[in-house]
Records
---
Amino acid sequence: MAGFGTLLRRELVLAWRQPGDAATVLAFFVLAAVLFPFGVGPAPNLLAQMAAGIVWVTALLAAMLSLERLFQADLEDGSLDLLALLPSPLWVAVAAKIAAHWLTTGLPLLVVAPAVALLFNLADAAYPVLLAALALGTPAISLIGAVGAGLTLGARRGGVLLALLVLPLLIPVLILGAAAVDAVLAGLSPRPHLLLLAGLLLAALVLCPWAATASVRQALD
Amino acid sequence: MLHRFANPARFLRIAAVVQPWCAAICALALAAGLYVAFFASPPDYQQGETVRIMYVHVPAAWMALFAYAAIALAAAVGLIWRHPLAFVAAGAAAPIGAAFTAICLATGSLWGKPMWGTWWVWDARLTSVLVLLFLYLGLIALRHAFDDSDRGERAAAVLALVGAVNLPIIKFSVDWWNTLHQPASVVKIGGPTIHPAMLTPLLLMAAGFMLFFVVVLLIRIRSELLARRLRALRLAQAHAAEPAAATRGPVLG
Amino acid sequence: MDALGQFLAMGGYGAYVWPAYAIALVVLAGILIASVRTLNTRRRAVAALEAALPRRRRQGGSADDA
């Protein structure tokens, strides 16, 4: 597993040198959320009710933007071929990329999400649950999204295609994540939703790196 | 190369025998099904004549699921045993499955209007079928998104398997979501209690749809095999023209 | 004529029952016709190319004898 640390550091250094990429995704996230009051009106009660759903939907859309580049840049400059030739198996490199994707987009999203929820008058009691749900859900987005990113590697209209493939698969994450916050607002326990979300994350953690590696290998053949 | 061609050749011989029979039985089953659906089955005591929509809606829903299962199975066979026909079959089945899914949604909406009072209800089953339609569209789009069609087939096969794993999770989460947001005003209509007189047209239509799926699948597989042959022939033609070009310029490879 | 009218009315639900069947018919006929047409186009193209390339034929002849 020494390879994983080295590869992860490489990804993070590359991301650090291009801070604009992560910042653009965050800006899109906030902007897309800010559009909703213009669309549905600024009534505080309505927005408070919609807050969790808006945060989740816009987080999904923002993730789509960043996923397109997950393997693309490395395929274009040939580093992906080199990663496949490393003594450590390819899935280690893929897992490192997924982890780096979460650290550079999921984690910042987690930091900004409360600020967005603030704009929507989310009830105070709901913040911890919103954060917990996002903490469980955003890694799942990175994992499942990585499969889509691998599959669309080298495809025409890859970005739009990626969203078409991945968004339906992410509906369970959206449902459970938003439902956890809704449960708190309704005075119920968010526990079952969070547990299911954790289960989903575990399943994705086991299956997705494997599927993503298979799809990346197809692109290299 | 010979190995790759051996199976398709045998397949084509079998298909040529099977297809006319399937087509004939399909036409008979659909004709009989439509007759019983309209003339020899009673209206439902609750839903009246609208229950006749069920005879297209429910078989279409069955076929939508069956086709996806068949695609996932073919994808698995193709990925595990590298059977050359499996990917062709999976690719050929996807548009047919999408067509049945679309029929299921459209007829469900037409059934919902008189029963629920609106064209669309975010009912758990309808919503799951809507997601299934997007899975189909994703499969079809991915299959055709690459210049190298082999790559498209393999990518679509992986996606079909990922979707097959995800489909029960989506179904579960949509059910979960639906029970959380159950609006009190919507009258929940479980499937009508199936009267034997309703079962006959339902099964006849289902058999007809299944055979229709088989017939169109065979046609599309043959068509795809021809497309491959066409590519091979064009390549051969280009090679045949090459010696003339060789005198004029450098030849690659 | 009255019996036919009554049949078409479908107890007042004709506006829902008939479009349902019409949509199913159009979609299924559409995919069938489109599939058959592509098959025929490709078959003709293959036949034309094979005629233009008078080479030793692969055993089993054309890829589609059906």
---
Amino acid sequence: MIRLAIATLRRHRGAYVGTFLATVLAVALLAGGGLLLYSVLIAEPPADRFAATTLAVAGDREISLETVTTKQKKEGKSKVKRKVKSERLTGAGTLPADLAGRIAAVPGVAGVVADAAFPVQVTARDGRALRGADDAPVIGHGWVSATLTPYTMRTGRPPGTGEVVLDADVAARGGVRVGDELRVTTRTGTRTLRVSGIAAPAGRDGLPAQGALFLADGDVAAVSGLAGPTAVGVFGAPGTDVAALRARVHAVAGDAQVLAGDDRVRADLPGALPDYIGPISIFGFVIGITAFAAVFVLTGTVTLSVRQRLRELALLRAIGATPGQLRRLLGVESAVLAGFAALPAAPLGVLFAEVVAARFMTLGAVPAQFTVRVNVPVLLLAAVAGVLVTFVAARIAGRRAVRIAPTQALVETATAPASGTFVRALVALVTAAGAVGVLSFVPLDGPLGMGMSFVSSALLLCAVAAVGPLLVRLLAAVVARPFGLGGLIARTEHRRVAAVAVPLVLMFAINTVMLLNSALLSRLTGQEQVAREAPATAQVTGDGGLPLDTARRLADVPGVTGVAAQLPTRVIVAQGGKPEDYPAQGLLVGGPDTALDLDVRAGALTADGFAASAALVRQYGWRIGDRVPLWLPDGKQVQLRLSMVYGRARGFGELVLPAGLVAAHDPRGLVRTVGLRYAPGTAERIHAEFPALRLVPALDAAPAGDASNQQGAWELMVVISLGFTAIAVVNTFAIAAAARRREYADLRLVGATARQLQRLAGGEALVTVIVGLLLGSAVTGIVVGAFSAAQDGVLRWIVEPGTHAVMVGGVAALGLLAGVLPTRLMVRRRSLATQV
Amino acid sequence: MAVELFDVTKTYSGGAGVRALDGVSVGFAAGTFNAVMGPSGSGKSTLLQCAAGLDRPDSGKVLLAGQEIGQLREPQLTQARRRLVGFVFQSYNLLDSLSLWHNVLLPQRLAGVRPDRAWAREVMRRVGLAGREQDRPAQLSGGQRQRVALARALAARPEVIFADEPTGALDLATGREVLDLLREAVADLGTTIVMVTHGPAAAARADRVVFLADGRITTELAAPSAEQVAAQMTAVTNGRAVASVGSNR
């Protein structure tokens, strides 16, 4: 069987080019997406600041909740099920101040270092902010922490009170020399400190992904605002057994984790390590989209190519092949083909992963330290998936085709037995119902909105593909009338039109939905931000943020009548045993006038309560006055009373907490922006008193950085899927055109000129494009309409007329080009006599 | 003369460089039924393709209804062909995606002339397919399909109908019906027919039979009987130096 399959493949090389190409691309996309997801999942922090220690002791860097469910089984037995769900913290909690002393007393411990790590905002004299390599944050420590890595002095001396030591990398980037003065801002305030020396880890200028600034140990508590060390580094005496030492340290460490080996890095401040949470969801989405498009396109292409071989299959039936043998032949053939396609696809996938990762890093959606790891099992898995999809598609397509009667081989044209209309309708009904279910029951204005709108368009596309031939027959009957002979052929060849129109529908619907929904979101985000900040006369910002105290002093400037300071943070909410992390704001308001309009729906802000967005309140079923447990970035749990529900959460946060609470428990704890309302003339007074601050009139305030990052990531994903679906469209058109050689030859014989053939092909392409756009617009309209209605109750179909028009025009142009060009080449190349 | 060839030569490149036509000069008078016979590989189909303007000779002249078609370039060649010529092939060459009616009217639609519907209906009646206009080719038997192909050729009122093994795929009785229809077209409509065939019985229906061997015209018979044709064929085939190995497709 396999020899026969390979022989057929070799003989029909031309006919398989289309399927081969589609398989190569599909496997490459799967491989690339898989590599990206794999790389981001196994991404390790690039450097270990605790390299010199034997053990590192630290508090939990995640919130874990255990739910215990007891299932009653028959015979009186019960089954206890434990489920632990956790969510990572963005900050680090502190350890008891006396822990280091207790550990030092453990036998076998030669030394301990109480380590403090906290983000610092460092500004050089000329006002430039200092950053590490790849824009890495600068983390502050006491000088004692230098031995953990260790950092050693290059020039100068260790810091005394009011002095700092910088790592050589940050110093070189900022052009800082010993003796220079730096402004250091933390949540406790801004200080001017003198550089006493430059230090570096052995063999390099600094650690990747984090810069280091060392303070005198006596200054740490005041500058950081930390109540204790964030970690304790333990040095074992020479010759001590690490495992035994770990057990002994564990005994005195209480709840704290004792980490050894590669795990020690987890004792570091989470903010000092590259964050791979966002990239995981981004790359998860990338592989979701590419996998769907790849499978969708591959199935269509394989089905089309099998159908085009009906005559040959009938011939094989006539000379004695059983339907089973033909099915096997088709299956083996496609598996061999996909196997060969995987060879060029694997390196292509690696290239794809590299290019996409580079683009995402430029956008800032993925940390600059990210590297794509080539993993052979992932590549193999992609290849296997490609083989499996082509195999299954060929078997399904063959299932119908091989039932063809052997006598059909002797007849001039073979036609597949009429497809199971019932099965098709059933599949379409189920998938369409699924889409309707997703659209009506999942809250599309929540964090799942974008993902779910993609899922529902994918389901609708499956429905369209299933009933494609039926839909196309109806639509083409209407659409094709004005297109003469081409339209006439298109109407009767509705299956061919459907096969080619479906990739067009895919291309249009999936990309338009993503573009329009993300455009809608970013527009709404912008609008909400403008509406939120409308009451403020100006927004005040400083380099990288300002201490809360500065915001309080701003409120006291004469002439200021209202102030609203925002401290961005993350808060974890747990419900049903599942901790979930949300963007939140610490909010400080003051003055008789309001400077921030959150669109309050119920209640009012209180000094010790919290506020939540209407979407979150609906999701969790809270009511005003409920006491809700919340976790702050350092792992501190608080019980707060819900005092207010607000509407304008986009680009702001789902929760609002008292600013003081956030400043105390978020390691950064800096105010991003302060909305001010003031009488004329006050601006000059603020400039005089706070020369380092920037005052921006409320209307000019830039939108939040996160939103534009996300928008960029979406656009990149659309580019990827546009590219792939465009290739799929061209490929399908080419396959379909190649199969029409005979039809063209017959037409030429009865007197059609080359130009008439091209016009004919153009007519059919036009019908195909119109049908594709109509179906695509239906899918897009349903999903975008539901998404839009869920956001703010306004039903929109054409969110951005420009984007929409470009998509319609682009898809139409591509479809027409792809429909006309292959015919043009074919008609021109072949001399007439050989066509007979 | 409806069709005239002067010293036409055609060589197919590739392999040994087969000379399919070697200086053929022949004319087919208007309103006559002509048959071209010869063993496989003798150049019958090439002669037909060159005469019909489907292929270009390497040298020599071809006149269709007095017009030299060697000078014409596409798309003028196609336009001349569809004005002057109709085709009937062994493999029918109907468009499966069109109904019989649309198939029959297709050449006129392609020519951009208003189809003569009354005449097309008359032609369908003559070939015995009246009332089946809306059927698809796939629903017909081979003989019926060939009659549709003939109807399509006749509907455009061509000067010449070229037929390449029109009965090759048909049984004797059905083939005889198709030949009757061809004869009728010559008698009633004054059409010229040039038919390539293997069958002595088919050739015997013609007014004139031209024999071809190795790309040259060897003999011709006027209104022969089937026995005469068969005898001549045997002579032509045996007269060849080597056994025929080629195929005429």
